[in-house]
Amino acid sequence: MGISSCLLRGPEDAFERLLTDPDAVQALLGSEPLPDWEMLDLGELWHGIHWLLAGSTWDGALPAAFLVTGGHPLTESLSEYQVRGFRPAEVSRIAELLQGISRDSLQARFDPDAMDSAGILPEEFWGQEPEAFDLVLEYFEPMRCFMITAGQTRQAVLVLGA
After folding, report:
1. In this structure, how many other beta carbons lie within 10 angstroms of the beta carbon of residue 2?
2. What residues contact 125, with CB distance under 8 A and at least 6 apart?
3. What single DSSP character describes residue 120?
4. How confident is the model at residue 92 (pLDDT cuts 50, 70, 90)?
């Protein structure tokens, strides 16, 4: 299929350390389990979620496009992962947007042929998989709750892989 992505949420002070210490980013990416951070796997359907939120392939306006753009880059020198982080105030704006998004609004934006034509990952999946919308919802709903909780509890969020 394609590239996987995940989200991590954790305390603001831990995020601020990551901004100033590249070794801490390396340690975070290599640790099991992740101290102070809770992870949510978006699998390979993260790009479909981005399309439904932002209506674009690789860009878009924030906060809707947070899965592919914005935030603070943490891994400029690392090639294996792209990691970007959002401070609690930024997370709150994302959470506010997500609170207003319903299943029906996502369904109205879901166009498998357009998604395949635009190269939304996984490629050539959207028009061939009859359950594609339901599958993307299986990742969207937990992501929505994860981000809303992060916003309510003033946590920072990292986006890995996208």
Report:
1. 15
2. 1, 116, 132
3. P
4. very high
- The C-alpha atoms of residue 104 and residue 26 are separated, in whole angstroms, by 40
Query: Is the distance from CB of 2 to CB of 126 less than 8 angstroms?
Result: no
**Residue-wise pLDDT tens digits, 100-129:** 999 999 999 999 999 999 999 998 889 888
Distance CA 76, CA 78 (A): 6
Note whether 74 and 18 are within 8 A (CB).
Answer: yes
CB 4 within 8 A of CB 44: yes
Tell whether pTM > 0.85.
yes
* Measured distance CA(84)–CA(76) in Å, rounded: 10
How far is the C-alpha of 54 from the C-alpha of 98, rounded, in Å?
Answer: 12
The Cα-based distances of 21 to 12, 27, 30, 160 in angstroms read: 14, 10, 15, 17
Question: Does the N-terminal peptide bond of residue 33 adopt cis geometry, omega within 30 degrees of 0?
Answer: yes
